Amino acid sequence: MKVAVVYGGPSPEAEVSRKSASGVILALKEKGYEVFPVELDTNFLKKLEEIKPDKVFLVLHGCPGEDGTVQGLLELLGFDYTGCNTQTSAICMDKDITKRVLKTYGIPVPAGETYFSEDEVELLELPCVVKPARTGSSVGINLARTEEEFWKSVREAFSYDTKILVEEYIEGRELTVGVLNGKVLPPVEIVTETGFYDYGAKYEKPTTNYVVPAPLPERLEKRILRISEKVYRVLECRGAVRIDFRLDEKGTPYVLEVNTIPGMTERSLLPKAAQAAGIEFPELIERILKV
Ligand SMILES: Nc1ncnc2c1ncn2[C@@H]1O[C@H](COP(=O)(O)OP(=O)(O)O)[C@@H](O)[C@H]1O
Ligand SMILES: [Mg+2]
């Protein structure tokens, strides 16, 4: 079976995707597949047409690629690919739309406002979180504790996107749940120095700790897993996705966002969760491939 692994591209998260891809390529080779690495450049379609893969394994983070554009193109041209379809990818790329959809299905999300220009913005409550609607890897996301920090964060968020979210700050624990082909994996707890999982805590700080399975009372764990299954179902996800949560001090879980192509380096969160469930990395990659 021929598998083309597509990665990279012009997205600001392309470097992370290249790291994910090298692990995926090794895993696929280990499982005996014929693997073709393909960078997402202006030539990538031509390369795919030459390779004629049985399946395209997508390892793209950010825009373009995680947003449904590449999925749509592949679908139109008859290439079979891994992960979510165009519609699900496009919805999940936009944190504002994702929250609105989930809310209508009764899934708890942080309260907040959406703004399309700086002069619409109002300071409603502090502390709050300010984020661009369509970035990833915590790019342009800030916790604002003072009025000055708030306006600075608003300006920064608008430098990345034409739509921003201002959300209530959910003080408490941070969890993430992987769902593999509709089945939930054990929750992972992320313990950061500051309580805010920003870019530095994600990629630069060795002090960030990951606890898997997250120590949770049984009822709360069940609730979080039930919510995760429902998120996967109502958004019609496919393959492996990762749902980010905050847990407030009363123990109410809030969904922050859904990652349709989660990080796939061996250190990434979803592979850690899979391993805790007894699924080693190559096996995980094969299960994503085979859906
Ligand atoms: N409403 C919120 N309350 C508390 N922390 C938040 C909130 N929104 C985001 N964060 C923090 O910022 C991080 C990144 O936000 P997230 O919405 O997951 O975007 P992304 O991971 O795509 O950059 C989260 O992991 C969390 O630590
Ligand atoms: Mg996130």
Question: What is this entry, summarized?
Answer:
With 291 residues, the chain is α+β, with helices and mostly antiparallel strands. The protein contains 10 helices and 13 strands.
What does this structure look like?
It is a single chain. This protein has 3 domains: 2-82, Rossmann fold, CATH 3.40.50; 92-108 and 171-289, D-amino Acid Aminotransferase, Chain A, domain 1, CATH 3.30.470; 112-168, Dna Ligase, domain 1, CATH 3.30.1490. 36% of the residues lie in helices and 23% in strands. It has 10 helices and 13 strands. Strands 8, 9, 10, 11, 12 and 13 form a 6-stranded antiparallel β-sheet that branches. A 4-stranded antiparallel β-sheet has the order 4-7-5-6, covered by helices on one side. Helix 1 crosses helix 10. The longest helix has 17 residues, at 14-30. Magnesium ion binds next to strand 13.
Furnish the topology, listing elements before pairings.
Layout: E1 2-7, H1 14-30, E2 34-39, H2 44-51, E3 55-59, H3 69-77, H4 86-93, H5 95-104, E4 112-115, E5 128-132, E6 142-144, H6 147-160, E7 164-168, E8 172-180, E9 183-184, E10 188-191, H7 199-203, E11 209-211, H8 218-234, E12 240-248, E13 253-259, H9 269-276, H10 281-289
